[in-house]
Specification:
By secondary structure, the protein is mostly beta strands. It contains 2 helices and 17 strands. It has helices at residues 11-14, 209-213, and strands spanning 3-5, 17-19, 34-36, 61-63, 76-82, 91-96, 101-105, 115-116, 129-131, 140-142, 144-145, 152-154, 162-167, 171-175, 181-185, 189-192, 268-270. The strands form 5 sheets. The chain has a 7-stranded antiparallel beta sheet, with no helix packed on it. A 4-stranded antiparallel beta sheet has the order 7-6-5-8, with no helix packed on it. A hairpin with a 3-residue loop joins strand 13 and strand 14. The model has no long low-confidence stretch (mean pLDDT 94).
Length: 279
């Protein structure tokens, strides 16, 4: 992926680093795979604001993505690599041999004209989707199911991938992008490859207006509010506001939020900080 540094013709472009979209092959999406997205402005069904700092933004349409990859054994040709305003990764339009069209998350290196497959007896090649029990150890994968047939839930954002490190009788052991070692049922499907747009984290907005395009309004700091509005508000002059916490009083830093008795604890071998969960 290529980044684009803007000429500093304005204050907003001086620090802006954008995406050059070198991999994108078309700017016209497939009309049959589009759905409307209703902008809420942070309001609920009564018209009252239930979420702050949301409003405005560019209009966009939702691209229906095939996370399940349940069209087994039917070869599909990559027709285009496209931008998706609803996610950080790029998407690929597949033309199946029977005439159907679907979008999938585009892995890094997938080219227009390539053929991809999904199924049990499929080679573990770039863009193919198969059960983890048929993959060799060390394979980099994304769009991983948590339950068979559920559709990919894990590792879907730009530049991410998990590594298949071990296979047990019932589980595959994955090294997640966070560094966590986790068990997932070995007959779950996953797609081979690293998610596209790997330099997404190097982009810089350059100005506050870029967030307004995304529908994000300015965020007010708690310490700048009055005591009636926020636990960190008030005080004479510039005060620290005490321990960082949310508007409802929940600690923002350091407090453990994961339940000690969560059912999936038994599937986590090692946390991202290197610690092991008590069984």
């Amino acid at each position: 992926m290529a980044l684009k540094k803007y000429k500093p013709v304005t204050a907003g472009t001086r620090w802006r680093i954008g995406n050059a979209y070198a991999e994108i092959t078309t700017d016209t999406p497939e009309k049959s795979l589009l759905e409307n997205v209703k902008s809420t402005g942070g309001r609920n069904v009564q018209g009252r604001r239930s979420m702050r700092y949301i409003g405005g933004g560019n209009k966009k349409k939702y691209r229906v993505i095939d996370f399940k990859r349940n069209k087994k054994g039917v070869p599909a040709k990559v027709a285009s690599i496209e931008y998706d305003p609803n996610r950080t990764a790029f998407i690929a339009l597949l033309n199946y041999a029977d005439g159907e069209k679907r979008y999938i998350l585009a892995p890094n290196g997938l080219q227009v004209g390539a053929t991809v497959l999904a199924g049990d007896a499929v080679a573990p090649e770039l863009g193919n989707s198969l059960q983890m029990k048929h993959m060799p150890l060390g394979t980099m994968i994304h769009n991983i199911e948590m339950q068979p047939g559920q559709g990919g839930k894990l590792v879907r954002s730009a530049g991410t991938s998990a590594q298949l490190t071990n296979k047990e009788e019932k589980y595959a052991v994955l090294k997640m992008p966070s560094g966590e070692l986790r068990k997932v049922l070995i007959n779950c499907y996953a797609t081979v490859g690293v998610v596209s747009n790997s330099d997404h984290n190097l982009e810089q907005a350059g100005k506050a207006g870029v967030n307004r395009w995304k529908g994000i309004r300015p965020r007010n700091r708690g310490v700048a509010m009055n005591p009636v509005d926020h636990p960190m508000g008030g005080g004479e002059g510039r005060s620290s506001g005490g321990h960082p916490r949310s508007r409802t009083g929940k600690y923002a830093k350091g407090e453990k939020t994961r339940s000690l008795h969560k059912g999936s604890n038994k599937l986590i071998i090692q946390r991202k900080d290197g610690s092991k969960l008590a069984k």
